[in-house]
Every structure is written in structure tokens, then in C-alpha cells.
Write a structure and sequence with these properties.
about 90 residues; alpha+beta; Ubiquitin-like (UB roll); two-stranded antiparallel ribbon; 2 helices; globular
């Protein structure tokens, strides 16, 4: 039996304040001997994060990514709210 590294989930700015937390770990689940890894969109729903994902930027391992990017064990997933200002 092998262990897989969890996904590190980070929230920034207004998202952090609305959710009441800044960082969590998400452990993968095993199905038929293979780890079932979620997408950012699936984690957004599972964590019941506030607001619409459509207005949020997503980064995986410090690189901007799409909502349906497959995540891997040990990845860092960041949700960044829209930034306004000048």
C-alpha cells in the first residue's frame, strides 16, 4: 500500500476572508488501486467555496491553469480572487 502526497490548497485575499481559512490539505482517494485525483473545479465544489469559480484565477504549482486541469499528488492549488486597483 503506497501513500500519496496530499494536494495543498491555498486561498488568497477576499476568498480567504470569506471561507475563514487560508490553507488546507486534500488527500487523494484510491479507486481500483489508482489514486483518483480531482480537478480545481471539483475541489471548489467539494469545499463549498463562496462565489463563482468563473471570476477566480487558478494556479497549479505557481502556474496559471484551467478549472479542468488534472491535479497530481503533491500539487499546490491556489485560488486567487479578481484583483482591482491601479
Amino acid at each position: 500500500m503506497s501513500s500519496t502526497a496530499p494536494i495543498r490548497i491555498r486561498l488568497f485575499a477576499g476568498l480567504r476572508e470569506q471561507a475563514g481559512w487560508s490553507e488546507r490539505q486534500w488527500a487523494s482517494t484510491e479507486r481500483d488501486g489508482a489514486a483518483a485525483m480531482p480537478t480545481p473545479a471539483q475541489l471548489w465544489q467539494a469545499l463549498q467555496l463562496p462565489g463563482s469559480l468563473a471570476a477566480v484565477r487558478i494556479a497549479v504549482n505557481h502556474q496559471f491553469a484551467d478549472t479542468d486541469t488534472p491535479l497530481q499528488p503533491g500539487d499546490e492549488l491556489a485560488f486567487l480572487p479578481p484583483i482591482s486597483g491601479g
